[in-house]
Amino acid sequence: MENIALITELQYKAVRSSGAGGQNVNKVSSKVVLSFDLPNSKALTDEEKTLLKINLSTRLTNESVLILNCDEDRSQLKNKEIVTKRFFQIIKKGLEVPKKRKPTRIPKSVIRKRLNNKKNTSKLKATRKRPDVE
Fold it and tell me: Each residue's pLDDT tens digit in the chain (134 positions)?
């Protein structure tokens, strides 16, 4: 995966931010919307595309486009940097192949120790009972 090749495939759009901010919100387009067309990407291999499609299925649109928004800062440039960093983190996480789990057995010494503790506890509780008077 080449970062520079991926950056050229990203599309940015500046939009007016929503929420509080007074007059500045109404006249400045500081919110940045990043979109990445996964199926038409030339920077990713077919294996990487299928892996991303599976791992990022909840974040992708019906056309397999990844859309990210950022309106954290008042500066459009900073929002662009933030959303680009977030994009690369998502792609990096999406390309990780989870490690296979090896089933492990409980050691016999641990089982023995647990059973001995149970016996000791039952003996202790048995000594607390009232003796039978007959």
Answer: 567 888 888 889 888 877 666 676 667 788 899 999 988 888 888 999 999 999 988 988 999 899 999 988 888 899 999 999 999 999 999 888 888 999 999 999 999 999 999 999 999 998 888 877 77
Domain that holds residue 79: 3-94
Q: Is residue 134 part of a domain?
A: no
Strands 11-15 and 65-70: unpaired
The full length of the chain comes to 134
Residue 125 lies in a domain: no
Mark residue 64 as left, alpha or beta (left: phi above 0; alpha: psi -120 to 50; beta: remaining).
left
pTM equals 0.69
In a domain, 126, yes or no: no
